[in-house]
Amino acid sequence: MENNKILVVDDDAKLRDLLTRYLTTQGYTVETLPDARDLDRKLARNRPDLMVLDVMMPGDDGLAVVRRLRAQGEMIPVIMLTARGEDVDRILGLEMGADDYLPKPFNPRELTARIQSVLRRHHATPAVAAKHEADDMVEFGDFVLSLGRRELQRSGQTLPLTTAEFAVLSVLATHPRRPLTREQLMEMALGKGNGESLDRSIDVHISRLRKTLESSDSSLRFIQTVWGYGYVFVPDGTVRE
Q1: Which of 123, 152, 184 is the last residue of a domain?
Q2: C-beta separation of 212 from 152 below 8 A
Q3: For the segment 97-152, what is each residue's pLDDT rounded down to a tens digit?
Q4: What total number of domains does the chain contain?
């Protein structure tokens, strides 16, 4: 953990100072920005391991920043800070490609726990895939999921996935044809307990994965909904009755 660099992007100077002091005591190297104007330069010059990004900022807001980064193929882990209480604003962040979110006000200890969880997923395979060798793969359709290298390829081309998306897909792909509840996916892929499993974040990650795996001109559906239960991974993509 001591080598992990955290970039905090927030226009609240007091919060930036608080997080800098607190996260430094937790062993992180912390840099801050008041807005996103110099973000690209910062990422190119001294790339952090994770970014804590406020939604409401002057200029480009956090949602626009995440959308742009993901569109560019930049998959740096992002935890979004949301001052708004509505679920729709938190879900929007996940839909844009954020790895996690935390509503303001929050306890810095909670942010630290979220950072540790996201970095664990980013730096290591999920627990379900940790037992696999570097060359262990799951093949389905035109895709190859490398559990050891943490890559998804289609016809030789690597496709970008967030840390959460890779974790969810790994769990599903290593449990083919076994229906899993949302709560099971939250625990197995993201390491979150029942208190956090009732939100819509799994549904958002599934939605983004489906956009990556399924094209409009194909009848294949690799991740299928089990109504009233959860989701199931079908390796051949054949729609279940």
Answers
A1: 123
A2: yes
A3: 899 888 888 999 999 999 998 888 776 544 444 444 455 889 998 899 998 888 89
A4: 2
Per the structure, the complete domain to which residue 180 belongs is given by 137-233
CATH assignment of the domain containing 163? 1.10.10.10
The answer as to whether 132 is a domain residue is no
Rounded distance, CA 24 to CA 13, Å?
16
Strand ranges, E, within 37-169: 50-54, 78-82, 100-103, 137-140, 143-146, 151-154, 157-159
Cis peptide before 105 (omega within 30 of 0): yes
Could you give the CA distance from residue 4 to residue 51 in angstroms, rounded to a whole number? 11
Q: Say how far apart CA 241 and CA 238 lie, in whole Å.
A: 9
Q: What span, in angstroms and rounded, lies between the C-alpha atoms of 77 and 64?
A: 15
Kindly state whether residues 14 and 47 are assigned to the same domain. yes
Quickly state the pLDDT bin for 173 (edges 50, 70, 90).
Answer: very high
Residues 103 and 198 in one domain: no
* pLDDT tens figures, 191-234: 765 444 445 788 889 999 999 998 756 778 899 999 989 999 99
Contacts of residue 198, defined as CB under 8 A and 6 or more positions apart, other chains included, come to: 183
Up-side HSE of residue 39: CA atoms within 13 Å toward CB?
A: 25
Which residue is associated with the tokens 């409401």? 56
